[in-house]
UniProtKB/TrEMBL annotation:
<keyword id="KW-0964">Secreted</keyword>
<dbReference type="InterPro" id="IPR008983">
    <property type="entry name" value="Tumour_necrosis_fac-like_dom"/>
</dbReference>
<protein>
    <recommendedName>
        <fullName>C1q domain-containing protein</fullName>
    </recommendedName>
</protein>
<dbReference type="Pfam" id="PF00386">
    <property type="entry name" value="C1q"/>
</dbReference>
<dbReference type="InterPro" id="IPR001073">
    <property type="entry name" value="C1q_dom"/>
</dbReference>
<dbReference type="InterPro" id="IPR050822">
    <property type="entry name" value="Cerebellin_Synaptic_Org"/>
</dbReference>
<feature type="signal peptide">
    <location>
        <begin position="1"/>
        <end position="22"/>
    </location>
</feature>
<keyword id="KW-0175">Coiled coil</keyword>
<feature type="domain" description="C1q">
    <location>
        <begin position="83"/>
        <end position="219"/>
    </location>
</feature>
<feature type="coiled-coil region">
    <location>
        <begin position="29"/>
        <end position="79"/>
    </location>
</feature>
<keyword id="KW-0732">Signal</keyword>
<dbReference type="GO" id="GO:0005576">
    <property type="term" value="C:extracellular region"/>
</dbReference>
Length: 219
């Protein structure tokens, strides 16, 4: 009996300690559960923020590429407009129905019958072409004459002879000759035709005598 009473007393002595330990454990479980829930929420928020940041980065990259493409298109449009703004071409004939010459000195030929004058660089009143842009140009000319006299022409650039055309006198017939050349010109350079001294050329509505030039490409 005494033994049972002692055991019961011992159990009653340790019961508050057990209950206190159980309460502490439950509290710690609650704290750990709360901390885990908070961690899960933070991880979810971070994941959403990362995904949002990735989308923002992608959008920024696409926007940068779009802006670059727009700039390239605008530059190309400007290049096309600049290129078309530099279109230069002319073609003219002597516009006579008789001989031109002979003269005792060389003279500039004025081709007054203008077919084309894109860019207005050729002046029919003077017969002079003035380069509006720096570039490589092509020029050609043709001439007809009666062979009782010589026929000679120079293609001139700024007062300097570039190429020429010449026909000997031979009998009494009409003959035609032509020549052409590419020239690199600076802005303001002048190109024109000169008739040799004591020579002549002949034209009529068939337009045998022509002077042509155009810009191949700018530099």
């Amino acid at each position: 009996m005494k033994t049972m009473v002692a055991a019961l007393a011992l159990c009653l002595l340790y019961l508050p300690v057990y209950q206190a330990s159980s309460i502490d454990i439950d509290k710690k479980f609650e704290e750990m559960e709360a901390r885990l829930t908070k961690t899960e929420k933070e991880l979810m928020d971070h994941t959403q923020m990362t995904e949002s940041q990735k989308k923002d980065d992608i959008l920024k990259d696409l926007e940068a590429k779009l802006n670059d493409t727009v700039k390239q298109v605008e530059d190309l449009r400007a290049d096309v407009q600049a290129f078309h703004g530099q279109d230069v071409a002319f073609g003219a004939s002597l516009g006579l129905d008789t001989h031109f010459g002979p003269f005792t000195a060389a003279i500039t030929v004025t081709y007054k019958n203008v077919f084309t004058n894109i860019g207005s660089a050729y002046q029919p009143g003077t017969g002079i072409f003035t380069a509006p842009v720096k570039g490589v140009y092509y020029f050609s000319f043709s001439a007809n004459h009666r062979t009782t006299k010589i026929s000679g022409l120079y293609l001139m650039k700024n007062g300097e002879q570039m190429i020429s055309m010449y026909n000997d006198p031979a009998g009494n017939s009409l003959e035609t000759a032509a020549n052409g050349m590419t020239l690199q010109l600076e802005v303001g350079d002048q190109v024109y035709m000169r008739l040799w001294a004591n020579s002549w050329i002949y034209d009529n509505p068939n337009n045998y005598c022509t002077f042509i030039g155009f810009l191949l490409f700018s530099l």
